[in-house]
Design goal:
Blueprint (H helix, E strand, L loop, with lengths): L1 H17 L5 H21 L22 H10 L7 H20 L12 H4 L8 H5 L1
Helix pairs in contact: 2-4, 3-4
Amino acid sequence: MKTLLSLIALLSAALSANAAPPTCYSRVLSLSKEITESFKELQTSKAEDPCVETLPRLYLDIHNYCVLAKLRDFVAYPRCERVLEVSELKEKARSLYTIMISYCRRDLVFLTDDCSALENPVPAPVDPSITDS
């Protein structure tokens, strides 16, 4: 009986360790990647509304201080309100902005304030081992 209780305590401790809530940084990082991917999908979708082409470019780097202005500008963009996907994307961007300026304000560290890097992102390097095979 004592062994069974010890085993249950050990399993519950292991499960609770995996169920830890995300940190502010991990939540901001995952939401920014989700927004960036959703924007890319919206830009390449076949059923694209013409107003989607006029949307401001949305590449998010949460280590760049200019991302806050980029999020504000995107959310405030007055066009495309009738396109459901754009409205959903704006809502996610608004959520990310709120998380960054209030809940995670003290947890985030900005490594740069290069606004042009958000307009012309540097493509991710290609792993040479992938191209060699």
